[in-house]
């Protein structure tokens, strides 16, 4: 089986700035070190958007420095807190479509990874996501070329309603169009997303959709019509996908819990 390490919602800030007293850069550095120590055999790292908090050049420069010595290939995606022009200036080698969207395909032994760009820089609410016809057409072609591999689709915004009313209002506005495309041109084994800052598992039109926590701040488990800006200092996490000929297994790891020693019980 091949491993994919998944981070999401880094929210990198300029030096000296914090979110609810937490330093996003320090938290991501800690999580990245943990992941590389425990999973050096991973095939790739995927970071599913909200790379920065304000989409500023200085923030992308800090992220570039954090990734400079990473021994694994890293695929970067955009979320609602990102901006394409500053990102492209900092990471000019990132694959993009002919229309300038940050979308890419990565083929593994048993799987095709399809990374989508759900950022809508003109969103009326500033933070909801959207997949325009150009991005959906690109997705259809990417799905058609999977050639029997298990397909894993990555989005920043999940494609299902989560029960967090505030977050659902800034979700993927045309998730139905995404699901229709996946069903028409699939099959798709797994969708992987971020955005919510909470570990959860749902289904988008019957397709499993895993969501991972941030390495920094988390959404408290307060369901209903709450503010999408609620945040709590809970352990940071990353995801781990195990992909083999039988499909996809999804794990999540809270990396800053107190260290414990595994023991055998009888």
TrEMBL record:
Residues 3-198 form the Calcineurin-like phosphoesterase domain. Keywords: Hydrolase, Iron, Metal-binding. Pfam families: Metallophos. InterPro entries: Calcineurin-like_PHP, CNP_phosphodiesterase-III, GpdQ/CpdA-like, Metallo-depent_PP-like. CDD domains: MPP_GpdQ. GO terms for molecular function: cyclic-nucleotide phosphodiesterase activity; metal ion binding. Belongs to the cyclic nucleotide phosphodiesterase class-III family. This is 3',5'-cyclic AMP phosphodiesterase CpdA.
